Amino acid sequence: MQAYIMAFLVGGLICVVGQLLMDLTSLTPAHILVLFVVLGGILSAVGLYQPLVDIGGAGATVPLPGFGHTLVSSTFEEINNSGFLGIFSGALKGAAVGITVAVVFGFTMAVLFNPKG
Predict the structure, then answer these.
(1) What is the domain range of residue 99?
(2) Signed CA dihedral, 2, 61, 51, 9: sign only
(3) Looking at the 3D structure of the chain, how many domains does it have?
(4) How does pLDDT run across 39-74, given as a tens digit for each residue?
């Protein structure tokens, strides 16, 4: 039960920061998206995001900073396993499942519900 509460608190805090940025600044949602992904990658690279993942679980991995964390941490892991070539393959291997699921579900919803565009 404590894991659910921590995931809710961590994920909620990330969402509150995003909402405050939208309400109090002139940043667009696209700017905030990029900011969160880059910030997650930077915090992961300096070792500050993994403790947040350990505390918040899915509350830290599902929001946008979690995607940046996934890219950076999987790149570092692949560098340790494959050396220099891991720089090029790490992020793709780490994010492949998430990106594939997004594309498949997006396509499925477009076929089923006939989007207007």
Answers:
(1) 2-113
(2) negative
(3) 1
(4) 999 999 999 999 999 999 999 999 999 999 999 999
